[in-house]
Structure formats: C-alpha cells, structure tokens
Design a protein that fits this description.
heterodimer; A: 309 residues; mainly alpha; two-stranded antiparallel ribbon; 4 strands; 70% helix; 3% strand; B: 409 residues; alpha/beta; Rossmann fold; 3 domains; seven-stranded mixed β-sheet; 14 strands; globular
Chain lengths: 309, 409
C-alpha cells in the first residue's frame, strides 16, 4: 500500500479535469434542462484554440509568458463556439420537444469533431502541445509534475471564482432565479436569453481551462479527445447531482479517485485479479455511478425536485 | 426571428450537402474513367489514414502509391495503367470490413494491400476469400491470421487462401524480443497490452518466451486503446521493481505510457513490437524515450541499397506518414500484385480474363522476386519466407538498429 498517496494524487489530478468539464454540463442543465452533448467538443476546441495561440507566438517564447495568452485564446475559441451553438442551434429549438435540442447537440458534436479534423492543419493525428519545463516536485512521497500542479491550482481557483460569482453578482443571482423558474424570472425583468447565454459561456470557459490542463498533462491534443473526456465529465455531473455546481466538482473528484483506486488495487483483492487493472477502470467508475444513483437518485449533492411539466 | 435563423441554418446545411454531393460525384467519375486505349486496374489500400495509428497507415498508402507510380512509369505491365484506391479503416474492424466489401464490389480492383492491424485483418479475410480477391498485408504479425487458431500447438491450418503477408509473425517477433531482453541482462519484466488481436497476442508470446528464458514477470496489466492517462498504471509499474516494461500494442498509447513512466521517475526502458516502431513514437514520447526498444520485421529499410530510390521518392514527394516501418513491405506487396497481374494479362493476349481475380491469387502464391525490402515469396500458409527481424533502440532521438537476425529456438 506504499503507493497509496501517489495513487490518491493521481486520482485527484484526473478528477480535477473531469470536474472542470462537468461544470459546463451542470450549468446548462440547471438552467435549460438540456444535456449539451456537444460540450466535450467545446472542450476540444478550447485545446486547439490554446495551441493556435502558442503556434502564432514567435518561436521560442517562454511557456510561462505564453500560458496566460493561451488560456485567453482557448477560452475565446470555446466561448465563441458555445455562444454560437446556443444562438443558432439551441435557441431556435428552446420550445421544441426535449428530444430536438438533444439530437441537435449530438449533431453539433459530430460536426465540430469533423470540422477540426478536416480544417485544422495536420489535426488528423494528435498535435503536440507544449510542456512546462519545471519540476517534478516531491511532497510526502508524492511526485507532482508541472501539468499536474497547474491542474490542482487551476481547479480550486476557478471553483471559488464561480461560487463567488453565482452567489454575489447580479448575473449570478439572476441565474439562480432563472434556474428555479424561468417564466417568473422573466416576469421580474430578467433577460433569460442573456442568462442562458451566460451559462453556456461560463461552461465553455471552464472547459477551455480543462483543455489547457489536459494538453499540459498529456502533451497532445487531438480532434477526438472531447468524446471520452465529455462522457466522463457528464458522468461526474450526474454523480454529483446534475444542476449543482459544487456537485459537478465533487463528482469529478470522486470519479477520478474511483478510477485510480480501482486500477491500482482491485487486482490485489484475492479472486479478483481478472477484474482489475487499467482496462477495467471505466467499468468500476460506472459501477460506482449505478450504486450512487440507486441509493441517491438525485446524485451526491443534488436536490430532489419535482419533474417539470 | 426564430424562423429567420432556422432559415439561415437550413440554407447553410443545404449548401454543405450540395458541396459534398458534388465532391462525391466528381470522385466517382474519375475512378470509372479508364485511361484511353488501355486497361486500368486498381490496387486497393486499406489502412488507418486518420486518427489512431495513422502515421504508419499513411506510410502504407504512399508505399503502395510509389510502387504503382514506378510500375506505370516503367511500363511493368504493357497496356495496363495502375491506380490506387485508398480507404481509411480508422483501425476499426467494422470499418475495415465495410471497406473490404466496397473494394470487392469495385470490379477494377484486382488486389488489395493492407490492413495495418491484425484485428482489422480478421474482419476482412472472409470478405476477400469469398470474392477470390488477393490481400497482402505489409504489417499484420498475428500468427492466427495465416496458421489458424491452434498454431501454438503445432496444428497449423490455412483458412484463407487469398490472404498473404510480407511481414513475419509475432511467434518469431515476441520470442526474438524475449531473447534480446534476457541477453541484455533484464531479469524482471512488467507486461502490458492493449487487448487487441495484435497487442495481446504479442505480449502473451513475449511473456511465455521471457519466462522460459529464465526471466521473472513482475506483473501484467491491460489498457484500452484511446486511453491517455496512465498515471495509476505507471505508479504500479514503478513500485513493482521491474527493470523492463514490455508493451504489446501501438505507438499511440505506448508513447504516452513511456512519457508518463519516465516522468514518474521510473528509469526503465519500454520494449515493444513493430507497432511502436515509428518516428511519431519518439516525437510524442519526447526525451524520455531515449533507450526504449522495439523489434520490427525485416532489416532496416535505410540500410538497404535497393530501398534508397524508394526513400528518395518518398521524401521528394513530401508524403505524410512514416515510411520506415512498413513502407518497403507495402511497396513489395503492391509489386507482388502488379507482377501477378502482369503474368495473368500476358498469358491472355494482353487482356484480362474473366476469372482474373482467382488467377491473380495463384500468381501471388507463386511470387518469387527480389523486392526492395528483401526476397518476396510465400510459404504454404501465405507467410513470407523472409523471416528477418531487427531490434531498434532510441538513440539521440532516432531509432537505431542494434541487432538484426532470425529467431531460432
């Protein structure tokens, strides 16, 4: 068990990325009850946006200088795409049957993947993402690499800013009101279109931060990276209680830890050698999801709400 | 307002569809249009041309392209113009099977080079066998493809007489790797595979051969293709005390695994098969890949005088992908098909007989010529008789050959 601290850290790094992406699913669902299946691709475009900024900067620019610009570039790309998607794909379908925006989201997800695959230079295979030349650092038997450090710093900072924004700012409170009852909120003078767009925008912003974390940790971005990451983040959002922003982050961390521990230790349990290891990580993550949903259908931090008509 | 944006959307969609339709119509036209005065014969290619494994897949496509261009330029078969039809299987068995069906349906296709992946080959063999269409893989190394499921116990049976390969098998490759590892003083190996026909087969053969040579197995694990995060696995390997990581699979996962392994502070080499022998492996894995090992089929292409011209053409045309792994074998596979078509045509007064596909299969079986990557001929199972293998090591950011030979017991 001497590897336990490292394995817990591994799960934490992985889970932080899931949590950052999960925010996007949960915010949009909380306000318009739409599962935005294109969110994984919005995450992916954020990664390519950041990479583009790095590539247009003069060769040899220090990554420490480039990183803030890359974050801005990635965020601009994914926010613009998310707002465009909201304006042209989802808003026209807002009063349509639930299934219509869902299908639109799936279509959009495929379209974005293919667009990057075909239009971005050399994106048919993974593109190298720059790496921070620093570290690794050792802390209580845990080895932390530069990409991991960026992730564990970025996730809580983003989370605190979001919590303050939602609780303190006018727009944040308007968001809560719209989530509770969009019709009444509109009658009280809230521009719900703006609020919904803001939810998409914030989700995309967090996805872009997650994409930069992803690029720094794995050293590459590719056009299909949004699929698996999006699926995991959606699972995290449901696990934590969809609609609840703290739940999304918690769900991400729980999912990441579950995957890491299952990979590391299940195969040591007598009689379960065949059921452990890296290829079973997803299975155990989903077993956990099913268990949580059986015992707490609303998710870890979700509130039980009556179904809307 | 809503109606207007819907209108804009549908106009955009209609526009996009029209463009696509025009594109495909144009494509069909050019493929059915035969060269004036002569016959046009198509050589099919099936390989992953985008996404996973595409660097080596593109090497196959353009290896064949150069063979076809050479055959046309040298009038290897008088009166026949060859062209290439390359399909992308994305390393997916189901897509490979669809592509096989498509190639079979195109009557101008008389032979196919590919696929890259053994798992994809399994899904295509039957389709080509029922259509009597010859298929030569430059890279499949799983022994079952030619020798049947019970090859290990010595009961070799050939299921598909249309299937050939210019690469040797993992039965030799895995054992060759184990022999090299033992000779290099490695005692304790951690074995990981990607659960695919190629990776799992190769890792299993290595594991058995390494244990037989007196080595310890520190542990085994499996990964999923497409995985990016191996931090947990890496922690496990590091704490197992292994002095070697053997990986059965492709460069996509192997490069990230090697990178994360070295970054975690485990300074043991990753050893893989021909699936990781690609320049892309080194560029993705970075500086940490220094000292990593790979076996590959054949002798190093760069050292062959016969392949110099091929490499020069590949570089001059600025083709994408890695020619180093299977480019030479792809060239030879295409040439075997072209030569066979040549003898079928000349035996029939310069025309294609009605049963051309069956005759081409028989012609390929009888192949006997010196290709650019070695002698090309096939045994009774469709396996190459060229059983050369080479161990490569990453030295100063490049694959350098360290040992060439054949495996003998």
């Amino acid at each position: 068990m001497h590897t336990l601290p490292q394995q817990l850290a591994n799960g934490l790094f992985l889970g932080s990325t899931y949590g950052l992406i999960a925010i996007g699913y949960t915010m949009v669902y909380g306000i318009v009850q739409l599962i935005n299946f294109a969110h994984g691709e919005i995450f992916m475009t954020g990664g390519f946006g950041a990479l583009t900024v790095y590539l247009v900067l003069p060769h040899g620019t220090s990554l420490w200088l480039a990183l803030p610009l890359m974050l801005i570039g990635g965020a601009l790309t994914s926010v613009l795409i998310a707002l465009g998607a909201e304006r042209f794909a989802y808003r026209p379908l807002r009063n349509a049957p639930r299934l219509a925006p869902l299908i639109a989201a799936i279509g959009l997800s495929l379209a974005l993947q293919q667009a990057v695959h075909n239009l971005y230079p050399k994106a048919t295979s993974p593109r190298a993402f720059p790496q921070l030349a620093a570290g690794p650092w050792h802390l209580a038997g845990i080895r932390i690499q530069s990409g991991d450090l960026f992730t564990v710093l970025a996730a809580p900072i983003c989370m605190i800013i979001l919590a303050l924004f939602v609780q303190r700012s006018r727009t944040g409170r308007a968001m809560q009101a719209t989530a509770q009852d969009p019709d009444t909120a509109q009658l009280m003078g809230i521009d719900t279109n703006k609020i919904i767009a803001a939810a998409f925008g914030i989700g995309a912003l967090f996805a872009a931060v997650a994409a930069v974390c992803y690029g720094l940790r794995y050293g590459e971005v590719d056009y299909s990276m949004g699929f698996q990451a999006g699926l995991k983040a959606f699972t995290a959002a449901v696990l934590g209680g969809i609609g609840n922003i703290y739940g999304a982050m918690l769900g991400g961390l729980v999912l990441g830890l579950a995957e890491a521990l299952a990979t590391a230790y299940i195969s040591n349990v007598p009689g379960m050698q065949q059921l452990g290891g890296g290829s079973w990580a997803d299975v155990w993550a989903f077993v956990l999801l099913i268990l949580v949903l059986l015992l707490r259908p609303q998710g870890l931090l979700g509130e039980r709400v009556a179904d809307r008509a | 307002m809503r109606h207007r944006s819907l209108l804009v959307l549908s106009i955009a969609l209609t526009g996009a569809l029209t463009v696509t339709a025009c594109g495909s119509r144009g494509g069909n036209k050019s493929s059915s249009n035969s060269a004036s005065g002569g016959l046009t014969v198509t050589i099919g290619v099936d390989a992953p041309l985008s996404g996973q494994n595409s660097a080596t897949g593109l090497g196959i496509q353009y290896g064949v392209q150069i063979a076809v261009d050479d055959a046309n330029a040298n009038h290897l078969v008088p009166g026949v113009t060859f062209k290439v039809k390359a399909l992308d299987d994305q390393a997916q068995p189901a897509t490979g099977q669809q592509n096989a069906t498509g190639l079979v349906a195109d009557s101008s296709v008389l032979g196919v080079v590919g696929p890259l992946n053994s798992g994809v080959a399994q899904s295509m063999q039957q389709v080509f066998a029922t259509a009597n269409l010859v298929e030569i893989s430059p890279s499949n190394t799983n022994p079952t493809l030619t020798q049947g499921p019970n090859w290990a116990s010595g009961q070799k049976t050939r299921a598909y007489k249309t299937y050939f390969r210019t690469a040797t098998t993992d039965a030799l490759q895995g054992a060759f790797a184990a022999q090299y590892a033992s000779a290099a003083g490695k005692k304790n190996a951690f074995v990981v595979d990607d659960k695919q026909a190629y990776g799992a087969g190769l890792a299993g053969i290595f594991k058995d051969a390494f244990a037989k040579d007196g080595g310890q197995i520190a542990g085994t694990d499996h990964v999923n293709t497409g995985d990016k995060d191996f931090s947990t696995l890496v922690t496990k390997i590091k704490s197992s005390g292994a002095d070697l990581l053997y990986y059965g699979g492709q460069y996509d996962e192997a490069s990230l695994l090697s990178k994360q392994l070295k970054a975690a502070g485990a300074n043991i080499p990753l050893f893989g098969g021909d699936g990781i022998f690609s320049a892309t492996y080194i560029s993705t894995a970075g500086a940490g890949s220094e000292g990593d090992l790979a076996t590959s089929v054949g002798v190093p292409v760069d050292t062959l005088a016969t392949a110099k011209d091929f490499i020069a053409k590949y570089k001059a045309a600025n083709y994408p992908g890695d020619y180093g792994t299977y480019g030479g074998y792809s060239y030879d596979a295409a040439t075997a098909i072209i030569k066979s078509i040549g003898s079928v045509v000349s035996a029939n007064n310069g025309k294609l007989p009605s049963d051309a596909r069956a005759k081409v299969v028989a012609g390929v079986q009888a192949s006997d010529f010196d290709g650019i990557a070695g002698h090309v001929s096939f045994d009774q199972y469709g396996d190459t008789t060229n059983k050369q293998l080479t161990v490569y090591q990453v030295t100063s950011g490049k694959w350098a050959s360290v040992k060439t030979g054949t495996f003998n017991g």
